Structures are given as structure tokens and as C-alpha cells.
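Exercise 7. Given the components listed, write out the predicted structure of the assembled complex. Treat all entries as one system.
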Amino acid sequence: MIEALFIYLATVCVICAVLTVSLRQPVYNVLALLTMFFHVAGLYVLLNAEFLAVVQIIVYAGAILVLYLFVLMLLNVRTQSRHLHRQWPFAVLILGSVTAMLVGALQDGTWGVASGEYTAAAIQEIGNTQAIGLRLYTDYLLPFEVASLVLLVAMIGAIVLTKKGLIDDHIKE
Amino acid sequence: MREFFVTTEFVPTDYLPVLIFFLIAGGFGFVTMIAGRFVRPQVSYREKLLPYECGAPPISDARQPFPMRYYIIAMLFVLFDIEAVFMYPWAVVFNQIGLYGLVEMLLFITILVIGYVYAWGKGALEWD
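Answer.
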């Protein structure tokens, strides 16, 4: 049952990822990406990472996708963007090297051996979100506060860029 | 193949209702579309195939660049959405970390409020 679900989710993820970069209509690309985000969330559920699955849907499927849609609308992308597909030799090169790297890493026998305090049984005991909370707000306090600074920088950066009207001017040209 | 499934001993059975829900929802959409294909009359003319715009005839292509202010609102939404995501794990363990947790979350929110005040002061939340 788990195997069947995993194979379904992984297959749809791969198909949607390919569709995201190969379809001609920009809106279809975004829809394929949305389908992929949901299936990745399903994979997280299979791995008992419930919090990550919900975050995947809230942040990626909810917010990041909206951002992509707006970029799409701002840049006024037309359907016939054939020139984008001329980059495929580079894509094949990068994909090939990353695949080779992953296959090489998987040859190592240590794959899938969980170690450390938070084993699957321990997380089942205290709860997925609680385990993240206990770690994040005690041992990883500094990265958590730095995250707020990163968000602040992104916020100010977005306002500075848009208020100068850089992209508006660019479209008018 | 076995070693890829790291946590096979903990099958997330709590999510079985979610799976069934998705199957019913997807199946309903699929079945109604197939059924509609057989039932509906197959008459098409130009007006019927136009995009539906609440009765008004469409005047141009729908794919037009949107004003910049939509983007800034979307960007701010993403950032505050991520801020909210950090609050879920904090809220569930609040009883265990207590005052320490409250102070660090206040610091986190204060830093983001600076951004909010900046956005407000710069007029990024204004609609014109």
C-alpha cells in the first residue's frame, strides 16, 4: 500500500516537473507546478513529516505559487516563447550530472539509516510539530531569529525595487 | 527497494480519510465531466466559445501585464505567511518553553514589525 502510494506520488511529481518546464502556456506551467507541490506534500506525509507537508501546502502551493503567477502577469509572457526551449542541452547536462551525483550517493550503504535522538519512534511519541518546536525554539534559536532578519530584508528589498518602478518602466519600453 | 522507505513501520493511517476525500473529490470531477460530455448538446458557435466575461463582450486579450502593486501585495503576503508558519510549532510547545519562548517570539515579531512599519511608511500598502 505504502509502496503503491509512493510510486504514484513520485511518478506524478516527475511528470509534473517535466511538464512545468516543457509546456508552452505559462499558466499551464504554473498549474503543473501546483500539482507537483501537492504531490510532494503527499510524499512528506508518507515520511511521517506532517508539519512539513502542511507547510508545503501553505507556503509553496499557497504563497510561492501566487508569486509565480504575479511574475507571470507582470512580465506579460506570451504563449509562443519558443526560445526558452533552446536551452535544453544545458538542462540535459545539469540533469545528467545531478542524477549521476545522486546515484553515486545512493551507492553508499548508509542511506536510510536514521540516527540521533529523534528516531521515527520518538517523533511518533511526542508529535511531529512538537518535536520541531522543541528543537527550533531552544537549540536553534539563533537561526530562527536570523530567519526574521531574512524576511525583513526580503520585505524591504521588494518595496525598494517596486517603489522605484523599475519593472513598470521596463514594461513601458 | 526496501531501504528507500525509511519509516515503513509507521504508516500514516491518520491520513487515510484525507486520501479517501481526495479520491472522492477527484472522482466526482472526473465522472461529472465524462457524464456531461455524453449528455450535453454538441452545438458550438463563435459567441459560445468566447471566454465568459459576465455577459460583456471581451475587448482584448486577457494576458496583459498587471500593475506592480499586485506584486508587492503578493510579496508581503508570502513573507507574513512564512512568519505565521513559524508560529505553529511555537504555539504547540508554548507550555513547555514558557517565558523564554514568549520573549524570543516577541523579538521575532518585533523585527518583522519593523518591516511592516517600513512598508506602511513607504506607502506600499496604499492602492494608488
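Discussion: Chain A touches chain B through 62 residues (CB under 8 Å). The domain at 1-79 of chain A is CATH 1.20.120.1200 (Four Helix Bundle (Hemerythrin (Met), subunit A)).
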